Amino acid sequence: MAIQPTPESHRDFTCEILGIAVLMVLSAISHFWYLMIGFGVLAAVVVAAVSCYVLALRARTEILQRLAQPVALQNTGRNSA
Predict the structure, then answer these.
(1) Which residue from 11, 36, 65, 75 lies 20 to 30 Å from 20 (Cα-Cα)?
(2) What is the pTM of this model?
(3) What CA–CA distance (Å, rounded) separates 39 from 46?
(4) What single-letter DSSP state applies at residue 10?
């Protein structure tokens, strides 16, 4: 006599598989946004550092030019008294 398969022995795991797939996709999207936020913060830090470097370089050049060529005092024609 053969054992008859019961309906419970042929369970359908479609919902469980789809649930795991959905969780994996949502997790991947979540990590994607974490990466994008991280890249944005990194880009902001790089831009700030480059801006500070350029500002310091321009200030240094300006100071050195002023020290190398001092502006002579000009007589405007007015009397000081």
Answers:
(1) 36
(2) 0.53
(3) 10
(4) S
DSSP state of 69: S
Structure tokens at 56: 């310091």
Rounded CA-CA distance 67/64 in Å is 5
* C-alpha distances out from residue 38 to 5, 29, 48, 53, 58, Å: 54, 14, 15, 23, 30
* Predicted confidence band of residue 66 (pLDDT cuts 50, 70, 90): confident
Do you know the residue count of the chain? 81
**Distance between CA atoms of residues 1 and 55, nearest Å:** 91
| C-alpha dihedral sign at 47, 50, 53, 58 | negative
